[in-house]
Amino acid sequence: MAHWFDLGDVAVVPLIEDDRLLIEPGEFFPGLEPDLAGWYAQEPWFDRAAGKLVFVIQSFLVCSADEVLVVDACVGAGKDRRRAEFDQLPDRWMQQFLATGLREVDAVVFTHLHTDHVGAVTVQREPVFPEVPHFVVEEEFRYWSSAAGGAAMRRTGDYLADSVLPIEQAGQLSFVAPDAVVGKHAELVPAAGHTPGNVCVRVRGSAGSVLLAGDTMHHGVQLRHPELSTRYCVAPEQAAEVRSRILAEAGDSVLLPTHFPAPSAGRVRRGRTGYGFEFASDLLRTGPFRYGEWLA
Ligand SMILES: [Zn+2]
């Protein structure tokens, strides 16, 4: 079921590449043995039959009357990737983008440069959105271009070469501060830890706001155990501090973490045994998003 989020004069539209990626708990969170009585070990968070965590791979359009941003870009189509679920995918991302009626965007924003956040901006090493700035924190790009970043990329395949360097070589990579304003309704929020230049994106509309929380949290189990960072976090302790801070400060605001199961957006609730997550129905609209109809 297609859906989007209504913030009044701004719409946040997910482009979902994979709505049910299953991963072994211990592969993602070293040593984790889920408490099967926990809320995070039930649907939609956990596939009981497979004994695996459920993740979504998605990116977001931030649409207003005079501006369209893309935040992150999934795995992308036709890429050589080590993980079977990411290898040589069909072009679900572009099909969904075109279905909105949009043909161009004003800017791309990367929360960080992991393989599941950058792929759809190139096809055959050519930028999909020529001339358009692609914002990233400079430290993030420097890290993945370094020897340490290159070593970390051995598990995934060299996605920097086919998905990020073509953007840089076209002069479209634009370095920004981790708290930069990146659009009329969007600003970055520093969140280094998962990766060195990791950020969230705060989106404000006339009828609500959401924090695109990126990969500061990947799964509900981290609300029960905020100290739990992933195997793929570059600085796990720093990632845990950032996550704890976001959860503590969330209040009644809506978080939209990239990999939470659909519809992914919700509010943090504090309970006796830690935090819970209540999916936000107030901002949620079901059905496909069409930009022209939304404007009219
Ligand atoms: Zn991710």
From TrEMBL:
<dbReference type="InterPro" id="IPR001279">
    <property type="entry name" value="Metallo-B-lactamas"/>
</dbReference>
<feature type="domain" description="Metallo-beta-lactamase">
    <location>
        <begin position="56"/>
        <end position="259"/>
    </location>
</feature>
<dbReference type="Pfam" id="PF00753">
    <property type="entry name" value="Lactamase_B"/>
</dbReference>
<dbReference type="GO" id="GO:0016787">
    <property type="term" value="F:hydrolase activity"/>
</dbReference>
<dbReference type="GO" id="GO:0046872">
    <property type="term" value="F:metal ion binding"/>
</dbReference>
<protein>
    <submittedName>
        <fullName>Glyoxylase, beta-lactamase superfamily II</fullName>
    </submittedName>
</protein>
<keyword id="KW-0378">Hydrolase</keyword>
<comment type="similarity">
    <text>Belongs to the metallo-beta-lactamase superfamily.</text>
</comment>
<dbReference type="InterPro" id="IPR051013">
    <property type="entry name" value="MBL_superfamily_lactonases"/>
</dbReference>
<keyword id="KW-0479">Metal-binding</keyword>
<dbReference type="InterPro" id="IPR036866">
    <property type="entry name" value="RibonucZ/Hydroxyglut_hydro"/>
</dbReference>
<keyword id="KW-0862">Zinc</keyword>
